[in-house]
Amino acid sequence: MPIPSSTMASLQSLTLISKCTIFSYQKLSLSFFPLLPGRLKTDTSSYVYITCNDAGVDFIHTSAIHIHVLDIFSPTDVPNYVQEFFTFDRTVSYDCHFKPILDVQVSELADGVSIGCALNHVVTDGTSFWNFFDTFTEVCGIGARKISRVPDFHRESVLISPAVLRVPEGGPKVTFSVDAPLREFSVSSENRF
């Protein structure tokens, strides 16, 4: 997102206090979503579940002041370096036995900010992710201690199967080339449905 020029000076002097404030807002938001700071765990019967052990969520602050907002959104194909704004790039779901289920990366750009959020889709879907992000926005914007939309963690669906997938010791093997080119593209607002 681009930043108004009047705000650039304050962005460039982003202090430890403001970083701590963002971190504390994230921590408060996560208190409403206790599964996200947990880890996946496979028991002896091969059932995979989430252990709510507060192992944590990564919050990363980076600087990419040599990149402009238009560098990202002007080309038809999204530049490869944009993948670095998302810490789960080339990560498979099973890795969340050892890595966070959610990562947030704030990257300062020359004329804006990129907020990259990565969430394991084994744990939640896009709608639930946006619920978390909206909660984070509520907490940041008005300092809410009570949120307007409480998350629903029930797993009641006809799509849930009693079958147990046996995962080999050490996790599944990746069957695709992690070095294969990845093509991502941006769509202008005029061309969206």
From TrEMBL:
Keyword vocabulary terms for this entry: Transferase
GO molecular function: transferase activity
Signal peptide range: none
Keyword ATP-binding: no
Keyword ATP-binding belongs to the record: no
Pfam (any one): Transferase
Superkingdom in the source lineage: Eukaryota
Name of the protein: BAHD acyltransferase
Organism, as annotated: Ilex paraguariensis (yerba mate)
Organism classification: Eukaryota, Viridiplantae, Streptophyta, Embryophyta, Tracheophyta
